[in-house]
Structure to design on (148 residues):
């Protein structure tokens, strides 16, 4: 069980650790962005908004929706705070903050405070169909072997 402030710190570390997997991105920049969003983030958590409306990190192949759980449901879940795999090749990242009706102005102000924050609806995640092609070009492999 965590306070809203403690929960925000855990979310901020998860985002920063995930972004840090990329050699092109800076963990410090993710920390700065999450720091700018901290006040509204705590409000989203305390108001229960993150139970229904996730924070979404988009970084390379990562499309991670972060939600919170409260009450007795929180006692039954096992959390995984490991960095989300897939950001190693990322050269950009955006943290999409949910913008529920009563907090839209606060969320917009936070998003305007850092270039990596957004109050826009995140893009849809890529589907596996886009990556369903073969992983190995067999014809190129045959050519390489016969040319030896």
């Amino acid at each position: 069980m965590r306070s809203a402030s403690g929960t925000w710190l855990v979310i901020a570390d998860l985002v920063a650790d995930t972004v840090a997997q990329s050699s092109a991105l800076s963990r410090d920049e993710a920390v700065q962005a999450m720091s700018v969003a901290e006040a509204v983030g705590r409000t989203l958590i305390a108001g229960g908004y993150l139970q229904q409306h996730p924070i979404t990190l988009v970084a390379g192949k990562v499309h991670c929706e972060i939600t919170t759980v409260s009450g007795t449901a929180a006692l039954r879940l096992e959390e995984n705070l490991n960095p989300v795999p897939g950001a190693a090749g990322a050269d950009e990242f955006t943290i999409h903050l949910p913008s529920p009706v009563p907090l839209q102005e606060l969320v917009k102000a936070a998003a305007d405070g850092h270039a990596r924050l957004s109050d826009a609806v995140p893009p849809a995640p890529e589907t596996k169909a886009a990556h369903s092609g073969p992983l190995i070009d067999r014809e190129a492999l045959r050519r390489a072997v016969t040319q030896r």
Observations:
- Residues 128-133 have pLDDT under 50 and may be disordered.
- The longest helix spans residues 4-19.
